[in-house]
Amino acid sequence: MQCFCNNIMKLVKVNNYEMYVCEKCGHMKKKNILPDELQKIRYDNHICDEGYIKYMNNVYGKISKYLNAGISLDYGCGQIHALSDILNSNNQKCDYYDLFYYNKLENKKYDNVILIEVIEHIEDIVSEILKIKEMLNDNGRVIIMTNFIPDNINNWWYLRDSTHVSFLNESSIIELAKIVEMDVEINRDINLFVLMKKA
After folding, report:
1. Within a 10 A sphere around the Cβ of 66, how many other Cβ atoms?
2. Burial, 26: exposed, middle or buried (Cβ in 10 Å; 0-12, 13-18, 19+)?
3. Among 148, 183, 181, 179, which Cα is nearest to 3's?
4. Rounded to an integer, what is the distance from CA 88 to the centroid of its chain?
5. With left for phi above 0 and alpha for psi between -120 and 50, is residue 18 left, alpha or beta?
6. What CA–CA distance (Å, rounded) separates 126 from 168?
7. Rounded to an integer, what distance in angstroms lies between the CA atom of residue 141 and that of residue 189?
8. Which regions of the chain does DSSP assign to beta strands (E)?
């Protein structure tokens, strides 16, 4: 398999999972990917309780300083579009989209597109980011939270989720930004990176 950085990925075993690993940029992908209908069953079982709302409020606190003024899109919002509700309650207009639950996108441009724990579910990251880039106004931002590949990958819990298929570290994020021709800011402390569309 070819990585988005054009290097040939090697098929290896990582924590008993068959993974394609790029030795150039560090990007990793699972070999076996669940079909959409099985992914949907797993998402239907997500618990959207007070603990989840608390988590999303915490996420809002982390991403708020990265938001451009204007209108946002919560991309991959899940069942209850909690983050969109939080932004709207803070007078920050935010729409929402999810492939399985709210799969109609309005024909409009956004100042921010937000992906919280979404990018790891996407098989072809470059194609998805390029699609999202087209939704952005000039200087628009794609704000992404995902667990970065750790230095010690032994027993990394992120691999155990059967719907997680794509994994990034700082090197692969920088490579991704070059490919989609966007600037990037990385904050590993909060598992966040921001892709910025050039005017």
Report:
1. 17
2. buried
3. 179
4. 21
5. beta
6. 12
7. 19
8. 10-14, 17-21, 28-30, 72-75, 94-97, 110-116, 136-145, 166-167, 183-187, 192-196
> Mind listing the pLDDT tens digit for each residue in 38-57?
999 999 999 889 999 999 99
The string of pLDDT tens digits covering residues 165-194 is 999 999 999 999 999 999 999 999 999 999
**Amino acid of residue 136:** L
Q: For residue range 56-113, list pLDDT tens digits in order.
A: 999 999 999 999 999 999 999 999 999 999 999 999 999 999 999 999 998 999 999 9
Cα 149 to Cα 35, 44, 70, 87, 109, distances in angstroms? 24, 26, 32, 29, 32
